[in-house]
Amino acid sequence: RRVVVATSNAGKVRELQEALAPLGWQCEGLGSVTLPEETGSTYEENAALKACAAAMATGLPALADDSGIEVLALGGQPGVYSARFGNVGSDVERNVLLLEKMRHKTDRRAKFVSVLVLAYPDGKLEEYRGEVTGQLLEGPRGEGGFGYDPLFLPDGSALSMGEMTLEQKQAISHRGRALAALLAAHGA
Ligand code: ITT
């Protein structure tokens, strides 16, 4: 079966494609499809907006991910707004800003959340959620992953998410967990 991977984030494309391999689905990119503005106030709403738009535009099932990092000492921010945090242009700038906001904060607990929505052209939706808790580091560690990965030390891990291989990250990450639920639901 063909499935559209409905994300413009290259880091997510890598992780989604790698995890879906056991299902034998043929993963396709967005092509000329543009994703709608994320007007929802929850990961669930935004993932559904993206997946439905891609499914309607292509006539194929489409898988979208909406995700973010929630920092306890910042009241759960940036959360759903993680991609737009500070209105700055790059992952590195967002990381600098987050470190700045966390300066002198001793409670550094945070969690990543991923919500996957698989939308079918007939309007049917499947939803999967995954989370991983951890601590924000005082500075970046590692060159791997994407986004906030170099700043995040998962609970029980000696490696930051930026220091992990793709396989190591998938085994413990929010997205890896949501994907595991999707795979289980589809018999893989
Ligand atoms: P699409 O909407 O096209 O999928 P996006 O990057 O805009 O791409 P989101 O709106 O879901 O996606 O924003 C999530 C942001 O949260 C993302 O840009 C990263 O900054 C951060 N994030 C999500 N998952 C992450 C992960 O596994 N590692 C590091 N940062 C992550």
From TrEMBL:
PANTHER family: INOSINE TRIPHOSPHATE PYROPHOSPHATASE, INOSINE TRIPHOSPHATE PYROPHOSPHATASE/HAM1 PROTEIN
Function summary: Pyrophosphatase that catalyzes the hydrolysis of nucleoside triphosphates to their monophosphate derivatives, with a high preference for the non-canonical purine nucleotides XTP (xanthosine triphosphate), dITP (deoxyinosine triphosphate) and ITP. Seems to function as a house-cleaning enzyme that removes non-canonical purine nucleotides from the nucleotide pool, thus preventing their incorporation into DNA/RNA and avoiding chromosomal lesions.
GO biological process terms held by the UniProt record: nucleotide metabolic process; purine nucleoside triphosphate catabolic process
Catalytic function, reaction form: ITP + H2O = IMP + diphosphate + H(+); XTP + H2O = XMP + diphosphate + H(+); dITP + H2O = dIMP + diphosphate + H(+)
Residues annotated as catalytic: D66
Binding site for Mg(2+): E37, D66
GO molecular function: dITP diphosphatase activity; ITP diphosphatase activity; metal ion binding; nucleotide binding; ribonucleoside triphosphate phosphatase activity; XTP diphosphatase activity
SUPFAM superfamilies, alphabetized: ITPase-like
EC number(s) recorded for this UniProt protein: 3.6.1.66
Family to which the UniProt record says this protein belongs: Belongs to the HAM1 NTPase family.
Superkingdom per UniProt: Bacteria
Gene Ontology CC annotation, any one: cytosol
Entry binding sites for substrate: T7, S8, N9, A10, G11, K12, S67, F146, G147, Y148, D149, K169, H174, R175
KW Metal-binding (keyword) present: yes
Cofactor annotation comment: Binds 1 Mg(2+) ion per subunit.
Enzymatic class: hydrolase
Cofactor(s) needed for function: Mg(2+)
Oligomeric form and interacting partners: Homodimer.
Coiled-coil positions: none
UniProt protein name: dITP/XTP pyrophosphatase
Swiss-Prot/TrEMBL keywords: Hydrolase, Magnesium, Metal-binding, Nucleotide metabolism, Nucleotide-binding
